[in-house]
Specification:
- A hairpin with a 2-residue loop joins strand 1 and strand 2.
- The radius of gyration is 21 Å and the shape is elongated.
- The chain is built from seven helices and two strands, in the order H-H-H-E-E-H-H-H-H.
- With about 180 residues, the chain is mainly α.
- Helix 2 packs across helix 3 and helix 6 packs antiparallel against helix 7.
- The termini are far apart.
- The mean pLDDT is about 90.
- It has a two-stranded antiparallel ribbon.
């Protein structure tokens, strides 16, 4: 299989469920997917154009009032590529947290700065955890839809991961406050 861009797989995955506009794709990415994948208009629209050229998706124009909208739909070639990617054993999971990068170099900024950075991270994790738990409740009520099982698995992973992050935040702040007392 040719080297695919992950944003292509995200878009094909979304289009495998329903036809969407570029704006709708961005909204889906910014929703539940944002907990483990990011996408911007700056990479979504070039990807759509490229995938259309490759025959992985089609575009149709519709009129909405005085404006037009482009609706994208996955093709059989797109479904095949998505299926091949799903079956491929090689995956690249990477962790990239700016908070951890700042903490790694925290000695240059001091303990108080590092504690503050951890607290900011902790607050965001708490907010995200509330959203993930709402998703979980909703999905558990509609579990008879097969796709919801997969959504629930990723949501469950997120909840367990974020709960571990919160435990780590508590330990890290305690270590920074108590370990090197002067």
């Amino acid at each position: 299989m040719a080297r695919e861009r992950k944003i292509d797989m995200v878009i094909l995955g979304l289009l495998s469920h329903e036809d969407l506009t570029g704006y709708d794709i961005k909204k889906r990415i910014d929703g539940a997917i944002s907990f483990f994948w990011k996408g911007s208009f700056g990479n979504i629209y070039p990807a759509l154009k490229n995938m259309e050229t490759q025959g992985l998706i089609t575009k149709r124009e519709i009129s909405v009032g005085e404006r037009g909208k482009s609706i994208y739909q996955i093709t059989e070639n797109g479904r095949r590529l998505l299926g091949d990617w799903l079956k491929a054993e090689q995956v690249h999971n990477e962790l990239r947290y700016e908070t951890l990068l700042k903490l790694f170099f925290g000695g240059a900024g001091g303990r108080d700065v590092s504690i503050h950075n951890i607290e900011v991270f902790e607050e965001q994790i708490r907010k995200d955890l509330i959203v993930l738990k709402r998703y979980q409740e909703t999905l558990e009520k509609a579990i008879e839809v097969e796709d919801h099982v997969y959504y629930l698995l990723t949501t469950s992973f997120g909840i367990e991961t974020y709960e571990a992050y919160l435990r780590w935040c508590t330990k890290a702040k305690k270590m920074l406050k108590n370990y090197y007392k002067t």
